[in-house]
Design brief:
The protein has 405 residues and is of the alpha/beta class. The protein folds into two domains: 215 residues, 3-Layer(aba) Sandwich (Rossmann fold), CATH 3.40.50.2000; 166 residues, Glycogen Phosphorylase B (Rossmann fold, 3-Layer(aba) Sandwich). Strands 3-4-2-1-5-6-7-8 form an eight-stranded mixed beta sheet, with helices on both faces. Helix 1 crosses helix 15.
Length: 405
């Protein structure tokens, strides 16, 4: 162990962010373990977190970057500038948003490298493989600072993956995924298995395990998700329509916001389920736990979006399992790492509403099955989703990466 606290510059796209409370839990756990975490938000965010300043990247700093810093580095570091411009010119980005994400990361590195040179961290860690990893990669190119990063669902799958994904990950000291599925995907893309580690998110404290409600009629159904394509909420509404058509008694709540909100409300009305389904919008995290206390079953209807984007393992699934909420999920991506069919939950095809009706009928009517699934699910969470244990593993990788310059 080092004689002083490990100093980690933690780079985020946006921090703190309401829809990414899992990252706030990660940082809190690192601070509780005594890591000297320096927080940087590349786009928006800022303020303070747990008494630590969150350095927000002021985009106005890009003006002197283009006027002075880039021309100066064309003379001082021509190879780095040349490689960067070749990377821009020689390969088209998968999408314009991803292009600007990488340019944001490059701009951050160009504006902050002097600060990092004056007071270097032991390690630069990017929360994501997009803009934060680009910043870490270029800080390594300029200053030789070791860097690592996370690589998660959006980074890997959206439009075929991040623009410079492989270039960055091959040079990172290590890459953290939160699912075995993501790890295997990167191995298949050519990243060395020994530098990819699956370290899941986690809960700092496990919630109380509620009693099984009996009888469960009408069945209380809950979905917590951003209202975007990959969540498959149009299919979920059709599942509700099938339940209604079969005379199945239920109440459903959908928590979350997003660009499809209006379209989904309209579809609910067209399908005749707008009286059974309530759209609650985005709620603060403390109220999410109240919704989980209300619910009998959490539904996750994730799909692969036309862009290729999909979920890894949504954090709400282990959270629901920890609280004693039954889970029915589609089998897309890494969800079945937690929702193991007939052991910790039930799995059904989102395009077969009858399969969901059968699954929900079983959960509504079979107390023994429901109790077995709930207790197995809680055991899985306690084994795999403990923030203290998972953070300790992450710190071990941080220390190993910092030692090998």
């Amino acid at each position: 162990m080092p004689s002083r606290p490990l100093k980690v510059a933690f780079l985020f796209t946006t921090f703190p962010k309401t829809s990414e409370t899992f990252l706030q839990r990660d940082v809190a756990a690192l601070l509780d373990h005594g890591v000297d975490v320096r927080l940087y938000s590349l786009f928006g965010g800022g303020g303070e977190f747990r008494g630590r300043p969150v350095r927000r990247f002021n985009l106005w700093k890009l003006v002197p970057l283009f006027l002075f810093t880039i021309p100066w580095n064309c003379v001082r570091r021509p190879r780095i500038v040349r490689d960067l411009f070749e990377g821009v010119i020689m390969r088209a980005p998968p999408a314009w948003l991803n292009f600007w994400e990488n340019m944001l990361g490059a701009g951050f590195a160009g504006c902050f490298y002097r600060e990092f040179r004056r007071d270097p961290p032991d390690l630069v860690h990017g929360a994501w493989a997009g803009a934060p990893a680009t910043a870490g990669w270029l800080l390594w190119r300029i200053l030789g600072l070791p860097f690592s990063c996370g690589a998660h669902a959006y980074d890997l799958y959206e439009h075929g993956g991040d623009w410079w994904l492989l270039e960055k990950l091959r040079l990172a000291r290590f890459v953290q995924t939160s699912t075995d599925t993501g790890r295997q995907f990167l191995i298949e893309r050519g990243i060395a298995p020994g530098k990819i580690v699956t370290i899941r998110r986690g809960l700092a404290e496990f919630p109380s395990f509620k009693k099984l409600r009996s009888p469960r009629r009408p069945l209380r159904l809950l979905c917590i998700a951003r209202l975007v394509e990959k969540k498959g909420l149009d299919r979920q509404l059709r599942i509700y329509a099938a339940l209604r058509g079969a005379g199945f008694a239920f109440e459903a709540r959908i928590v979350g916001s997003g660009p499809l909100a209006g379209e989904l409300r309209t579809l609910a009305a067209e399908l005749g389920v707008d009286r059974q389904v309530s759209f609650l919008g985005q709620l603060p995290h403390e109220k999410i736990w109240l919704e989980l206390a209300w619910a009998d079953v959490l539904l996750h209807t994730g799909v692969v979006a036309p862009s290729g984007d999909r979920d890894g393992l949504p954090n709400v699934i282990p959270e629901a399992m920890a609280a004693g909420v039954l889970v029915v999920s589609s089998p897309v991506s890494a969800t079945t790492e937690a929702v193991q069919p007939e052991r910790t939950g039930l799995v059904a095809d989102v395009d077969v509403p009858l399969a969901w009706k059968v699954a929900l009928e079983r959960l509504a009517g079979d107390d023994a099955l429901a109790e077995t699934l709930r207790r197995n699910a809680r055991a899985w969470v306690e084994e795999n989703y403990d923030a203290r244990q998972n953070t300790a593993r992450l710190i071990e990788w941080f220390e190993r990466a910092a030692r090998h310059r």
